[in-house]
Design a protein that fits this description.
With 196 residues, the chain is mainly beta. Helix content is 6%, strand content 37%. A hairpin with a 2-residue loop joins β7 (134-140) and β8.
Length: 196
């Protein structure tokens, strides 16, 4: 995608979802959503890129999109959709009024885990939930940890932003945030959590 030479307008972390009239929110809630990642000579998707303009950001298995949603499941594990016969849910109105799930899912899994190496990773966070805002923190042993933000919505920031341990990062509905976490500062077998 052309950016007319302004690096602040470089597109990198995008997402797509269904736009059916009056049914967008419920279709996103049901999982009809995904990432669309773009690369250029600055954000090349190759951390070993010899191009001097390249930022050499973590790539391949070290560049991980995280699609965050909250959902409700019934006792059999099926996704619960609002009852369309309820008065406030006529014509998908219940989604326009907002719905909050009781389970957080990342890439469709409840409380997933991922083993990491002691190195830098890029995480592309997307709040694809219908209503909830998240204040995300990185924690180890109930102690908040600092990390670095490098992007918001579709563009990279002009410079990396240190996110203090006690601040975390606020991410609203449909918002994207790219962060770098350096796991080399942790010990082998440490457990680190991304929490709301």
């Amino acid at each position: 995608t052309k950016n007319d030479g302004d690096p602040a307008e470089s597109l990198s972390t995008l997402w797509y979802h269904d736009h059916a009239m009056d049914h967008t929110a419920e279709n996103v809630y049901a999982g009809l959503v995904g990432f669309h990642l773009l690369f250029d000579e600055v954000d090349s998707g190759n951390e070993k890129d010899p191009n001097p303009k390249s930022l050499r950001l973590p790539s391949d298995e070290f560049d991980i999109p995280l699609l965050i949603q909250d959902k409700r499941f019934d006792a059999s594990g099926q996704l619960v959709l609002p009852d369309p016969t309820f008065d406030d849910c006529k014509n998908s109105k219940c989604f326009r009024l907002g719905i909050l799930g009781d389970r957080f899912v990342v890439n469709g899994k409840i409380q997933p885990r991922h083993e990491v190496s002691r190195r830098k990773y890029r995480f592309r966070l997307l709040n694809a939930g219908p209503s909830r805002f998240y204040q995300l923190f990185l924690t180890k042993n109930d102690q908040d940890q600092a990390f670095v933000q490098i992007g918001n919505d579709e563009s990279l920031l002009e410079a990396p932003l240190d996110v203090p341990a006690d601040k975390g990062i606020l991410i609203s509905v449909s918002e994207r945030v790219d962060i770098i976490i350096d796991f080399s500062k942790f010990d082998l077998n440490d457990k680190v959590f991304l929490v709301n």
